[in-house]
Amino acid sequence: MLSTVQGFRVACSPCAAIRPSSRKGRSFQARKAVRASAVQRKTNTGKNGAKYLSTWLLKEELAGRVDNELAVVLQSISVACKEISCLVKNAPIAGMTGVADSTNASGDEQKKLDLVANEVFCRCVADSGRTGIVVTEEEDTPIAVESTSDGQYIVCFDPIDGSSNIDACVTTGSIFAIYSSEQDTCKVDWSADGNDEILEKCLTNVRKSGKELVAAGYCMYSSSTVFMLTVGDGVYGFTLDSGNTGEFILSHDNIKIPEPGAGGQNIYSGNNGNVDLWAPELKEYVQHLQQSGSSYRYIGALVGDFHRTLLYGGIWLYPPDTKAPNGKARLLYEVAPMSMIAEQAGGMSTWGPMADDRVLEVVPQTVHQKSPMFVGSTGEVKRLQAFLAAKKN
Ligand code: MN
Ligand code: MN
């Protein structure tokens, strides 16, 4: 301990020599120190009293909001996200950029990192021994997990969202959705079922609306790696303490999407390049936003655009267009989990011509079914609804 203190002093002494010696300079240093310690205190006092994601999950289990199986699955997912975070950060020097010469079920060109991250995610979730069925963006059909002790949960994920951005080191993320399957029909009988029966059981079991979600979240790989999670009782964020403890540490406690006039910003987001392909009233809505002083922000990666909307407020639009009549985002592992997070943060997520159909009510008919989405603060989504209603009348 003594050597650490001595080392610290030695490291700091050259800085002291170039510090401004004026009174103003010293008070600036003092103010900065106070602010830093205030941030530190906030970080360490979560609603359930935990600092680390791992202890947060244990406390949620003690409070009866998650069961042991779910805590284990979520813990495994967080480990997958740590590994993927490392892969993403080192991709340009590890030869992991570029395409893999294959396409997924949605027809997207797969990147090398899509495939590696998919393998990491599948392995971590299967190794938890608590998952019955896995659905991933990168596999055509659901996967039944053989080495599972119970498997009442269906884990759906997009291992890397925004992978078309990845070679340019733009924000990406992993999105996950955990559906409960309390019916026994979920369970595959490995000794009696043939491959066709197993596949059929899996396909039947993954036709779930977002109302059957028990947990949803995403991990964003950006200037920080941030793991956002809801288990149906608010939204919590944990930042990866990389280089130090290597743990996810609570940084966003029970967050709510800020409303306009109450800390929220008037931001709209969506692919403006497609506005001419949208319904005319949505094009008019965008013009109305532009004329009424809204700002426009668009990364083009769902996780990044959604994360900003969650923290700053505003609305993110992915309406149907003439090229993609159901939008581009997939219901089970992109649109539904984001919708659950938005609702848990006090916001709304809707679709339909009047933007008044709740996304979480939609039951997918196919594994990779797409869905449009209007998501944001309740005030902003209601403003869109009012605009569309006024146009129809
Ligand atoms: Mn995606
Ligand atoms: Mn993806």
Describe the structure.
By secondary structure, this protein is α+β, with helices and mostly antiparallel strands. The protein folds into two domains: 53-252, Fructose-1,6-Bisphosphatase, subunit A, domain 1 (Fructose-1,6-Bisphosphatase, Chain A, domain 1); 267-392, D-Maltodextrin-Binding Protein, domain 2, CATH 3.40.190.80. It is 38% helix and 20% strand. The chain has helices at 2-18, 23-43, 53-62, 68-90, 112-127, 195-205, 280-291, 302-312, 331-344, 378-392; strands at residues 99-103, 109-111, 131-136, 143-144, 153-161, 172-180, 213-221, 225-230, 236-240, 248-252, 267-269, 295-296, 315-318, 347-351, 357-358, 373-377. The strands form three sheets. Strands 4-3-5-6-7-8-9-10 form an eight-stranded mixed sheet, with helices on both faces. The protein has a six-stranded mixed sheet with strand order 12-11-13-16-14-15, with helices on both faces. Helix 4 (68-90) packs antiparallel against helix 5 (112-127). The longest helix has 23 residues, at 68-90.
